[in-house]
Specification:
Blueprint (H helix, E strand, L loop, with lengths): L2 E7 L12 E7 L7 E10 L4 H4 L20 E7 L10 E4 L6 E5 L4 E2 L16 H13 L7 E4 L5 H12 L4 E6 L2 H9 L4 E4 L5 H8 L4 E6 L3 H10 E9 L20 H4 L3 E4 L9 H13 L7 E5 L4 H9 L6 E5 L1
Length: 332
């Protein structure tokens, strides 16, 4: 093929993103130079952190440029180029999603074995999503056997992994929140001891009922009311891994801090933010353990797949509205 389609950021969202913030652009399929590869993307990942990169603001990663393709996790087949032991036909993981064909330095591509798992799994359960759950729960929050664990946004790609890993690693009780009754039912099927729909009433009340003896570990994907409820429920020396705060990503005004933040002092709580990129040292251990659980049928994962690069913006908007179960992916 000679035509490559990619999604550009047409304008910066004000509050909630809309379809008008994106543009589908046709370009030529690139030609590789020395040390470069052309990859035909098969799946691309859309993730909540991408909303922050749409703002023109200083953060831990640069903002997306206007009138240029967005980027993010992707996996595909090498169709041109050869370098670093990677050849045409290999399947590689890389960071240039939101386009049909990607031109990248071979050093930026990580070969994967497509016979171990479906290739989409390398963007989810065996990729950044899974490692985020694994590192956040076990290293950042230092979960111990017997702990009571609370996970917000538990039916999402990261949250659903956190809950299952907690059970597999010996948590005493695992509680999750989700945004619909169907998602709550799915959490029960995944082995959560209790789950609730946060639309049904105050999160604080629901969490107290689900974890009457308190919470030792909180994995935060939501922030806001959930974080306040978790602080209220946490036991002495509780630990919180702060992974995301999707409740405020589209807010026009910054939220008030949790009103009970002073409890952190008396309870001697640890609230620690983290980025998955800081925990690459765990990748080998993570892949070995999680792949073993998958082979043994001890761990399950969900994917919500949207077809067509032209529908990537709709997939992202659906993700922000909570329409996904598990990992949101675009099949290119």
């Amino acid at each position: 093929m000679s035509t490559n389609r990619e999604i550009h950021l047409a304008s910066r969202p004000q509050g909630w993103p809309t379809a008008d913030n994106f543009r589908l652009v046709s370009t030529e399929v690139p030609t590789p130079g020395p040390g470069q590869l052309v990859v035909r993307n098969q799946f691309i990942s859309v993730d909540p952190y991408m909303r922050g990169r749409m703002n023109d603001a200083t953060s831990y990663v640069p903002p997306f440029a206007l009138d240029a393709p967005l980027d993010g996790g992707a996996i595909g087949e090498v169709v041109a180029g050869e370098a670093n032991g990677i050849t045409v036909g290999d399947t590689v993981l890389h960071g240039l999603g939101w386009r049909e064909y990607a031109l990248l330095d071979a050093r930026a591509a990580r070969p994967v074995d497509p016979t171990v798992a479906p290739v989409s799994a390398y963007l989810g359960v065996l990729g950044m999503t899974g490692l985020t759950a694994y590192a956040g729960l076990l290293e950042v929050a230092a979960m111990k056997p017997g702990d009571t664990v609370f996970v917000s946004g538990a039916a999402g790609a990261v949250g659903s992994m956190v809950g299952q890993i907690a059970k597999l690693r010996g948590a005493g009780r695992v509680v999750g929140s989700a945004g619909s009754k169907a998602k709550v039912q799915r959490l029960a099927a995944l082995g959560f001891d209790a789950a609730f729909d946060y639309h049904d009433g105050p999160v604080r009340d629901a969490l107290k009922a689900a974890a009457p003896d308190g919470v030792d570990v909180y994995f935060d994907n939501v922030g806001g009311e959930h974080l306040e409820a978790a602080i209220a429920a946490m036991n002495l020396h509780g630990r919180a891994a702060i992974c995301g705060m999707i409740a405020q990503y589209n807010a026009d005004q910054p939220p008030a801090a949790p009103r009970n933040l002073a409890l952190v002092i008396g309870k001697r709580l640890t609230l620690r933010g983290f980025l998955v990129g800081d925990h690459g040292n765990l990748r080998g251990q993570f892949v070995t353990e999680v792949a073993g659980w998958l082979r043994e049928g001890k761990l399950s994962y969900d994917e919500t797949v949207v077809d067509g690069i032209e529908n990537a913006p709709a997939a992202f908007l659906g993700l922000m509205r909570g329409e996904n179960l598990g990992k949101m992916l675009v099949r290119v």
